[in-house]
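Following the same procedure, backbone shapes were mapped to integers, as reproduced here:
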Amino acid sequence: MLIVLVLLSALLFAIVTISTNQRSAARNGITGVLLVLLVGSIALLFTNDNQHWGMKTVTTTTEKPLTSASNMSGANLLLYQALGNGKEKIFIYKTNSQQKKVATTQADIKTTSKVTRSNTKNAKLVTKTQRYVYRNGFYRALFAGVDNNHAFKSRQHEFKVGNNWVVLSTTQAKTLQKQAKTSQAKLKAQLAAAVKAKMVAALKQNPQMTTEQQQALQKQYTAAAQKQAQQQVLAQLQKESLK
């Protein structure tokens, strides 16, 4: 409506001003009214565009489950890429274990992200999106043609994860992966030595063990040693994790 009013009042103002040479009270009154309509309509359009006059904020909340963004020593992992001075971050995550490509949060000034820790077992991503919508049909009709209904206002991501989750920067994750590859052979040798020592002690205590019993015991010791090594890696990851 206002767009039509701007065009119509501007056209009539031009016609009245150009076509009538003689000044009169009627001419001055008509041009005054048309000028007020023109300026007022433009002012309302400007106020709507800059201050969202005639609109209200509507918030939409969505929830998605979270799974580990990467397979690293069995840890539940959430990654982020720091921007600028490090205060702003793009988070890298997955909402499905079958998901081939990771998803990322948006990198813009209207999007914020944070991590909330608790004792929850089911990690999830809660996203709140705010948009401007017209208060009622009157304002929709008044600003028809402006095309700013449901205009984006802001977005907040909240990653609700358990205390056992590890939150690392991509740089930290790459460094830890390199360290893991470097120490893999050493760790494997340490595990083999630990299992062998336990087997020797067990055989001394029970020399009559059968081959099947020895194999079962060795499997048990190996699993225990691997679990302990994994816990040590997880402890190291927790130290590096974003609080």
